[in-house]
Amino acid sequence: MHKNLKFILLALAYLGVILAANWALVTWGMISIGFGLMAPAGVFFAGLSFGLRDALQESHGRLSTITLIFIGAGLSWFISPTFALASGIAFLFGELADLAVYTPLRQKQWTTAVIASNIVGSIIDSILFLLLAFGTEELTWQGLAGLTLGKFYMIIPSIFIVKYYRNQTNDLLRQSV
Q1: CATH code at 34?
Q2: How far is CA 14 from CA 45, 66, 137, in A?
Q3: How far is CA 133 from CA 8, 85, 90, in A?
Q4: Which H or E run contains 74?
């Protein structure tokens, strides 16, 4: 598949999960995610976004990822201005934390990089989103645990997404040599 088409598909998938996360929250509110924990309904989409973010960094760099966060927040404004602002800021700071963990680890232990960066990014994203979207009354241990666990469920699919894009990028590098 052509590199530009791959980027477009990956970018659309990333923007799609950002929009889906905000739409699910507006549509369904809070949902049970197991173990007696509740989380905003968009939690699984938000969790999947971390793997897509890592794949975007692998294939197209950090700047494209950060640009897409702003585009996703802008498009989410049409779903809910409050959640768009909260998720945009949370995604951005989660992305910066993700980059701080993922970038130095990705060349040596990329699987560890995906897992560690997703955990760190999801905790920061969750704290900021709960504070900005709902205020301090929702920033409880249970609220944070629910959001973090829901995002943690998405680490396994994230590993496969990043592996695919790492392989594609490595194949392109081998072909150009």
Answers
A1: 1.10.1760.20
A2: 9, 11, 30
A3: 30, 8, 10
A4: helix 62-76
